[in-house]
Design a protein that fits this description.
The chain is an alpha+beta fold. It contains 13 helices and 17 strands. The strands form 4 sheets. It has an 8-stranded mixed beta sheet, covered by helices on one side. It has a 4-stranded antiparallel beta sheet with strand order 12-13-11-14. Helix 4 runs antiparallel to helix 6 and helix 11 crosses helix 13. It is globular, with a radius of gyration of 29 Å. The two termini are 35 Å apart.
């Protein structure tokens, strides 16, 4: 109902500027504005013609005229300040605007620095987010020296409710540059090829990436072909903050405490290493780090990394007979001893693999780096033993040449989620209420949630919407991001409803 004010054009500027009433003011005078509508201040003052100005001033002294004009000027400045505050209010920012802002930050992680965060760009981004969370007046905001940013949206319920958490990671993959990301929006995708970079002939095509056919008619955010996009996982960050802002703007939606966290170095397997589960304070959480819309994951690979070193002996090739030991050739022999078809490009679903990710060497020394992956714990252990067995075979032929070091990275979270399957049920219901059909699939990779689950925080993974992560062909459909926001809100509501 519209409220009528007896003297709408009188009173203090604050009274006029904060009233949401609709009034009729004489031409040239200033009526009240809505405190929630980010309208240009120029539109808030009706045009004043010279004749109208004279009529407004009337037959008064020049000093009085100047005072009136000065008061009018001060009020105009006041409206500018109010309007600027509204335009920069985090609650008025869309998930797309946030995402396009966040991808400007270069946050590639680097496993070689032995630092946390591993790169300075991650801390710069974390401080930017901290500032945004403070502008939203969240509680318990904390950014520690390791780049872990946490905050809490306090409960608006009189009941004692569980605390649910939402987590995303700050870093992008070291596999592709994240410097000077230049995203663009493809409006109403028509199902054809998308030219990312005409100069270099880089095309995003459904012939190579058939999932594009699922998104005909939707707006897509793509790269310019020179960098990755960063939807993994800046889409997740944007979705979480947008959902929190929505809940702040809608206090009629009951919810308990909601904990949020953004951590560094997920892409190099260290995201959960220094995550303070006790400080976070959630009963359970969800990482917003999945792929296509509808994905819900609580099974991931068991993971290890293997470093295999071959020590050779270099002599002049003209005098090498029975003297040279070529570490490159021996390393190549090791590579072809592994099963040819048990590689990422030849496996899917629950099938595990050996993945050679680095081959660096010379005659004198060669180092291979493998990652080992399998959903089944027993097969995972057998894969590690197979690598050790092959190293022994090499040493039988070339004594003392081969050294191998294997380190476990994370384990399949399923064993930690199965005792609390109600958190999966809540996520599935939240998706359906958002008009999204949940697809429970195994993660062919890992998330921070896997490690956090083993640290006592059950943490399945929910879609963030992006596809083709870690490369120039990465893209994210805008409706998928918007649905992820709805899912977060619905989880918060359902947790309160189910209690």
């Amino acid at each position: 109902m519209q409220k009528k004010i007896s003297s709408p054009c009188s009173g203090t500027p604050a009274e006029a500027a904060t009233s949401a009433a609709i009034v009729n003011c004489p031409t040239g005078q200033i009526g009240p504005i809505s405190p929630i509508s980010p309208i240009s201040p120029i539109r808030l003052i009706r045009p004043i013609s010279p004749i109208g100005l004279i009529g407004l001033i009337g037959p008064r002294s020049h000093l009085k005229v100047l005072n009136d004009l000065y008061a009018l000027f001060r009020f105009f400045c006041y409206l500018c300040i109010i309007n600027n505050s509204l335009l920069n209010n985090p609650m008025n920012t869309s998930v797309v605007d946030r995402f396009l802002d966040y991808v400007k930050f270069d946050t590639q992680s680097d496993e070689l620095t032995n630092l946390t965060p591993s790169t300075p760009g991650q801390m710069i981004f974390a401080k930017h987010l901290e500032k945004e969370l403070r502008a939203m007046n969240l509680a318990d905001i904390n950014l520690d020296d390791n780049g872990y940013l946490m905050a809490r949206l306090p409960s608006n319920s009189s009941r004692q409710l569980p605390t649910v958490g939402f987590i995303a990671h700050l870093d992008t993959s070291p596999d592709m540059s994240g410097h000077h990301v230049n995203p663009r929006i493809v409006k109403d995708y028509d199902g054809g090829d998308i030219t990312l970079n005409a100069d270099h002939g880089i095309i995003l095509s459904p012939a190579d990436f058939p999932e594009l056919n699922h998104y005909k008619g939707q707006d897509l955010i793509v790269t310019d072909g020179n960098t990755l996009l960063g939807a993994d996982d800046k889409a997740g960050i944007a979705e979480i903050i947008t959902a929190i802002a929505w809940l702040q703007a809608h206090p009629e939606v009951e919810h308990g405490d909601i904990a949020i966290a953004f951590n560094p170095d997920e892409e190099i397997g260290q995201g959960a290493h220094k995550f303070d589960v006790e400080r976070f304070g959630a009963d359970w959480a969800y990482t917003m780090d999945g792929g296509e819309i509808g994905e819900l994951e609580f099974e991931n690979f068991n993971a290890a990394v293997a470093k295999v070193t071959f020590n050779g002996r270099n002599v002049h090739p003209g005098y090498a007979y029975h003297k040279m030991i070529n570490s490159i050739r021996i390393a190549n022999q090791f590579v072809i001893m592994l099963p040819r078809w048990e590689t990422p490009e030849h496996t899917e679903d629950y099938e595990g693999f050996y993945h050679l990710i680095s081959f660096e060497g010379s005659v004198e020394k060669t180092v291979l780096t493998y990652i080992i992956r399998d959903h089944d714990r027993d097969r995972f252990e057998r894969r590690k033993k197979e690598l050790e067995h092959l190293a022994r075979k090499i040493n039988n032929e070339f004594p003392g040449v081969c050294d191998i070091e294997i380190k476990d990275q994370y384990y399949n979270m399923r064993e930690k989620i199965e005792p609390v399957m109600h958190i999966i049920d809540i996520a599935e219901e939240a998706m359906r209420e958002s008009g999204v059909e949940p697809r429970v699939v195994p993660i062919r990779g890992g998330t921070d949630g896997a490690q956090l689950s083993f640290k006592g925080l059950p943490c399945p993974n929910i879609f963030a919407g992006g596809l083709n992560f870690h490369g120039r062909y990465e893209y994210v459909p805008i409706p998928s991001m918007e649905k992820a926001v709805e899912v977060i809100v619905n989880i918060a509501r359902l947790v309160a409803k189910s209690k």
